[in-house]
Write a structure and sequence with these properties.
This protein is α/β, with parallel strands linked by helices and 242 residues long. The protein has a domain of 126 residues. The protein has seven helices and eleven strands. The protein has a five-stranded parallel sheet, with helices on both faces. A two-stranded antiparallel ribbon has the order 2-3. The radius of gyration is 21 Å and the shape is globular. The N and C termini lie far apart (49 Å).
Length: 242
């Protein structure tokens, strides 16, 4: 066997290894899902963004909530039937606002009980989805995250603070345009949060939750713990890992 044959075999193995590993993970996950569904009498739906699930030649690919996730999850919710309880597992750094809100609204309108499980983290758009659930189960060290809109590299609340700290004549046109977009983005997300939680916590509670999550009280990656989420009025319970 020549050196080029050996290199070809090594390349083939390195190419197939992520695929084979993924198939083993998928098989194990399907068995676990079936066990949970049988035990809880529910339909389990996963929104999991991990490097092991998306790799090309062993190189990780960044994943976040996008329109494909929205299409897949909404279809899964519809196929489950309107009265079937749902167990939605969220493990995500977040993503685009539009698909996150589409998923959240589909969960909110589902007649059966919806329980969101957060084993590690559900940041940003993941938190928006969690807000729509009837119950949120978090492991002891799991976290949610703020929902302040991001405009490119900058959080919307920080852009608006420029208007508070500088005279209008000293602010360039681009920043003024960004500030206009920032105000609209915050207001839109504020209304969405009130829509998702208002029936459960009332108008005042919904306004408080929306303000805490969207107005820049935290940096976008600052975690919200189980206790902090409960203090906000979210239906959070701590679940020990199985």
């Amino acid at each position: 066997m020549g050196i080029f044959d050996l290199l070809w075999i090594l390349l083939l193995i390195s190419t197939l290894q992520p695929v084979l590993r993924q198939r083993l993970v998928d098989a194990s996950r399907r068995r676990m899902i079936a066990e949970i569904e049988q035990r809880r009498g529910s339909r389990v739906i996963l929104l999991v963004h991990r490097q092991e699930t998306m790799s090309v030649l062993g190189f990780p690919v960044m994943r976040f909530i996008d329109v494909n996730d929205a299409e897949a999850l909404i279809r899964a919710i519809d196929l489950a039937g309107p009265d079937v309880p749902l167990d939605v597992v969220l493990h995500t750094p977040g993503g685009l606002a539009l698909p996150s809100l589409q998923i959240a609204r589909a969960i909110r309108r589902h007649r059966g009980k919806v329980t969101v499980h957060v084993p590690h983290y559900a940041m940003s758009g993941g938190t928006l989805i969690a807000l729509a659930a009837d119950e949120i189960l978090m492991s002891p060290h799991a976290v949610l995250g703020p929902l302040d809109p991001q405009l490119g590299r900058y959080p919307a609340p920080s852009i608006l603070r420029v208007l508070e700290q500088k005279p209008l004549a000293d602010i360039d046109d681009e920043t003024l345009v960004l500030a206009d977009l920032a105000r609209k983005a915050i207001d839109q997300l504020d209304r969405a949060i009130r829509e998702l939680v208002g029936e459960r916590v009332g108008p005042d509670g919904a306004a408080r939750i929306a303000a805490e999550l969207t107005r820049g009280a935290r940096t976008h990656d600052n975690p919200i713990t189980c206790d902090e989420a409960r203090a906000l009025g979210l239906p959070v319970s701590e679940a020990l890992p199985a």
